[in-house]
Amino acid sequence: FILTIINGNTYEVMKPRLLLIVHSILTASALFAAEVSAFHNHFQGMTNHPNALKDGSHNHPMTSKRAESSNDHSLRDGSSTPNTMEAIQSRLAAIGLDLPPPGGPKANYQLVHRDGDLLYLSGHLPAKLDGTLIVGAYAPSDVIEGNESNKWLSTEQGYEAAQLCALNLLSTLQSYLSTHVKTETSTSGVSLPADLSQIKIVKLFGIVRSHDEFVEQHLVMNGASDVLKHALGSDMGGCHARSAIGTNTLPLGICVEVEMIAKISGSN
Predict the structure, then answer these.
(1) Structure confidence by residue, pLDDT tens digits, 172-228
(2) Cα 167 to Cα 131: distance, rounded to the nearest angstrom
(3) Measuring CA to CA, which residue among 139, 127, 131, 199 is closest to residue 166?
(4) Cα distance from N-terminal residue to C-terminal residue, the chain
(5) Which residues contact 107 (CB under 8 A, 6 or more apart)?
(6) Can you tell me the distance from the alpha carbon of 139 to that of 155, in angstroms, rounded to the nearest whole number?
(7) Rounded-to-integer distance, Cα 107 and Cα 176, Å
(8) β-bridge pairing 241-247 and 199-209
(9) Which of 29, 50, 75, 265 could form a disulfide with 79 if both were Cys (CB 3.0 to 4.6 A apart)?
(10) Distance CA 17, CA 19 (A)
(11) pTM of the prediction?
């Protein structure tokens, strides 16, 4: 278009200036295109950011952390039910179980020893609500059949005895937490007695009194693990390490004894 309105002589004179104008136009176009691309990439990154909400809005990382910390006592197994002490008791009641009154040591030791955020619990016994103990030893079904002695117990009976051990461990934990541990509320900052909702089970150690041919100690210990998982949730109660061994005798003639290591959070 420019060339059609000027003659040849004029073009030769104006050629350097025309080339400069064309170069400036091309440069400005390239810069504009780069700005558009950068804006598009920035917007796309915001919508794909892990803190971006489904509606396209964007959460600051600190906001996300606060939101996450507000659910610290949830079950962490996909459920939104708060892991409060009331919820723990309700879940136990739903399967016909209750926390027994806390007991005391049977010799010269402490039931609970605290080291930092870890609580080490001594071996707990299969005590019923009335205080009576389950005694005996576990044996294979072929040994139990036709044997009139009350000494031998089945794996199923062992599962129930290990449940009692776990309930007694939880009772001891709750008693210790409510009297020795304080936790700050996230809203008011006031220190309150801690409870089982601040507990994560780290490890169990089970000792199972056994016949020489009994090899299902691990199935007996499932009773304790399942109670903790049901009461505290999959992550806080069920995701623990565990060992189980057999022995020919235990104190007071009991059939099983269970130790525990637990971790407390948000306490002082």
Answers:
(1) 999 999 999 998 766 677 888 999 999 999 999 999 999 999 999 999 999 999 999
(2) 13
(3) 127
(4) 82
(5) none
(6) 8
(7) 18
(8) parallel
(9) 75
(10) 5
(11) 0.69
Residues 108, 168: Cα–Cα separation, whole Å: 19
Give the 3-state DSSP-derived string for the chain, with helices as H, strands as E and coil as C: CCHHHCCHHHHHHHHHHHHHHHHHHHHHHHHHHHHHHHHHHHHHHHHHCCCECCCCCECCHHHHHHHHHCCCCECCCCCCCECCHHHHHHHHHHCCCCCCCCCCCCCCCCCEEEECCEEEEEEECCECCCCCECECEECCHHHHCCCCCCCEECHHHHHHHHHHHHHHHHHHHHHHHHHHCEEECCCCCCEEECCHHHEEEEEEEEEEEECCCCCCHHHHHHHHHHHHHHHHCHHHHHCCEEEEEEECCCHHHECEEEEEEEEECCEC
